[in-house]
Write a structure and sequence with these properties.
This protein is α/β, with parallel strands linked by helices. Helix content is 21%, strand content 32%. The strands form two sheets. It has a five-stranded mixed sheet, with helices on one face. Strands 4-5-6-8-7 form a five-stranded mixed sheet, with helices on one face. Strand 5, helix 3 and strand 6 form a beta-alpha-beta unit. Helix 1 runs parallel beside helix 2. It is globular.
């Protein structure tokens, strides 16, 4: 199983379409700021879509936080902006929320800077921004989570 994890596409379909075509995902997790492209992303990916509301999204039907089971793991998804202002405070707030909800994988966006921290008890993922990157080198990034037949979780930070 291959899961495409993206954030902050800000309505720019070009980059998200490229990532979907490259990865051919079995599931897409969009961590907010899709800016109205939910239907397009769903149709383009033609697979299950988990999506949360970002600070630039106005669709109030999108959840602020989503949790779901993924094999033996429980995932907490959020854009992150409700949990703090700085990257460190966002991560601290999300850690507390994950602990409350019994999650061991956190996926968040908002900062436009990728993070991939694998740990034995908690994995933290931020794919950066697929459309408006802010990290050194300004690469348009996303994460691919591959679940092997043995059940291993392999995380890869990728760029366009």
């Amino acid at each position: 199983m291959r899961i495409l994890i993206v954030s902050d596409s800000h309505g720019d379909r070009n980059y998200i379409d490229q990532a979907i075509e490259r990865v051919e995902p079995d599931m897409i997790c969009h961590l907010g700021d899709a800016q109205g492209d939910e239907v397009h992303i769903q149709a383009m990916g033609d697979c299950p879509l988990h999506i949360v509301r970002g600070n630039c999204d106005y669709d109030m039907s999108l959840p602020i936080v989503d949790t779901f089971d993924l094999g033996p793991h429980k995932v907490l998804m959020s854009h992150g902006h409700y949990f703090g202002g700085s990257p460190s405070s966002i991560e601290a707030g999300l850690r507390k929320e994950a602990e409350k909800k019994g999650c061991n994988i956190i996926m968040y966006g908002h900062t436009h800077i990728p993070v991939l921290k694998e740990g034995p008890e908690l994995t933290i993922l931020n794919p950066g921004s697929i459309a408006r990157p802010r990290q050194d080198g300004r690469k348009h990034t996303y994460i691919v989570l591959e679940i092997t037949k043995k059940g291993d979780f392999l995380y890869n930070l990728c760029s366009l």
